[in-house]
Amino acid sequence: MDSLGIDQIQINKVPADTEYYDVMNGSHRWEVKVHDHGKVALVDSMPRLAPVGQTADFAIVQAARVSYGAGTKKVTEDKGLIRYLYRHQHTSPFEMIEFKFHCVMPVFIARQWIRHRTANVNEYSARYSVMPDKFYHPSAEDVRKQSTSNRQGGEDATDTKTAQEFLDYLDQVEANYKTYSELLDKGVSRELARIGLPVSVYTEWYWKIDLHNLFHFLRLRMDSHSQKEIRDYANTIFALIRPIVPVACEAFIDYAFESIKLTRLEIEAIRSGKPLNTANKRETEEWEAKRKQLGLPEPVKVEQTQPSSTEQA
Length: 313
Hints:
Layout: E1 20-22, E2 30-34, E3 38-46, E4 49-51, H1 58-64, H2 75-87, E5 98-106, H3 107-113, E6 120-123, E7 144-146, E8 154-157, H4 160-174, H5 177-185, H6 190-193, E9 202-210, H7 211-221, H8 228-241, H9 246-257, H10 264-272, H11 281-294, H12 309-312
Antiparallel strand pairs: 1-4, 2-3, 3-5, 5-9, 6-9, 7-8
Helix pairs in contact: 2-9
């Protein structure tokens, strides 16, 4: 079979009257500092070009309508469709948009972050390179006590004396970087020398993810129950993508992040006005939080009546 020459390929060109612009305004990098040594940088977006008068949201509509042109020019119709798609969990059109980030964060944040397995990641390797002399060191105000209701989190600030003891402890741990550096100079391999470093040391990676999975990450990591340090990164990411896909971000806020999901038992409790029909303590606590957020009245208490003497007999 003869090879197909490029001159034989029929290319459907975009109409000459269609104008496009760079959604990142010609910049190669939008970077925001996080904490003392961390950062999040948006380094690329797909699509990078959008029709003039629209945003990158147009790619969601294009995918939903399986169209190859610039799509409808009625932006209000596009917005309604995007909101419908998100509201009814038609997720695949949102996967047509991708973002690539360069993120620098402490290792303990990276380990939480990587649990979201729906992105392409390439991390800095401490086997090939020397770890930087940079550590996450919170302020005394950010030293939190263990939460009494959430075993995996902290809540209120601890007392000043304990906070200072914790910061002194971090100083001691960070001082071990000098030993790490000296051992490297003496020939200890980087892959072994690194194992003595604390999880407060900084790492970095390139992180590429589609919009559907990014929204899932943001819904969990922007939530008030998430650890404050990773929440700071999630809020930064959201601020970076919002100018590029404002319609999708608005739908995310309205239908996911600031919405309330009700279970069957919770719906029954609303209809009946009675307490949640469960003996599960965590379910009850979650429902009480939702009830207060919705401004619903206290449930009607069901009084236990004593059986009459006749019934007892």
